[in-house]
Amino acid sequence: MRNASNPNRDLQTTEAEKHQKRSQQMEDTTTLSVTKPTRCIVKLGGAAITCKNDLEKINEENVEIVSSQLREAMITGSSSRKVLGMDWSKRPGKSGISCDADDFEDQNLDSSSFVVVHGAGSFGHFQASKSGVHKGGLNKRLVKAGFVATRISVTTLNLEIVRALAREGIPSIGMSPFSCGWTTSERNMASADLSMVAQAINSGFVPVLHGDAVLDDLQGCTILSGDVIIRHLAAYLKPEYVVFLTDVLGVYDRPPSEPNAVLLREIAVSEDGSWSVVKPTLEDTKKQESSQSDIPKGDYKSFAVRSTYVFYSLPAVETTVAAHDTTGGMATKISEAALIAKLGIDVYIVKAATTHSSRALSGEVKGTLPEDWLGTVIRFVGKGNRNC
């Protein structure tokens, strides 16, 4: 029977059941286990690491800051603060290549406990949407050409992210889902061999994966989102926590560019897959926004370009998706984060290249959220949640 008081709960539960069934049906061809515990999986949002309105342009400042913050989070013991870069290739404007082998002995980075996944941003999305790669149809010349163009674009970005991390002394290895043999069926994960990821971690490297164009058993091809990749990595690696770095402070009750948008600091996920807002409370929300009447309570919209999630504590949580975004935007991010939280893993969504992202990456905000930390945490509360 459909839940009359919370019609969106049924929708959320149905989606959670679908994801669970898909996970059970997915072929796991991984033959190697990870011998080292994973501390954190990091998602570098495409909008945070690229200039999304400029085709194939990297946000170099953000990438540099985030890479430095990741290095700081990895430093252990009495490691030297001197940065010894691992990008020894000649680059424009650089004079020669230098490497002092002795200095590397003093570098103690807990690098193997981190895994990085990044989105595409202004790389790949244009090529994919223009040719319809996400809809499949490799028998069409345009789709096949778009598949090739999309992979050229996203792997180009992947190389630049790997280089940025390597320049901070992080032993990063780029890995493409397509090249690792990952496939989908009707756009849902069908096969994901994580053996190469496990081997890289066991060897002390930081795997750097990305959203990719992959083959699909039924429709020929599609786009595999970095957010979906993170969920499968989380289920396999079981990290202490997951951090999504975005271009906004966290999850809002509506697009943050709109007036009176409220930052949701804590979202709880219950056993049945439904979600509820813990912070801010309804009273806090009323204080923060006086003109909420423009979104009527119970206005449940379909999951399309403008999606609405109802968290019970707030009238509505809205997300928007850019016209060229073939991965679902923030809607997919929230959905995948909730599924990760159901595994008992806290998920932090925070603005990249800020003190808040630095604190999230280091694990400083685990447990009770500091009042001065700005971001969103999504965590599992199990049975008995007061809002469920």
From TrEMBL:
Compositional bias ranges of the Polar residues kind: 1-14
EC numbers, comma separated: 2.7.4.26
Listed GO CC annotations: cytosol
Gene Ontology process terms (BP): terpenoid biosynthetic process
Domain Aspartate/glutamate/uridylate kinase, chain residue ranges per copy: 39-350
Signal peptide segment: none
Protein's recorded name: Isopentenyl phosphate kinase
Upper classification of the organism: Eukaryota, Viridiplantae, Streptophyta, Embryophyta, Tracheophyta
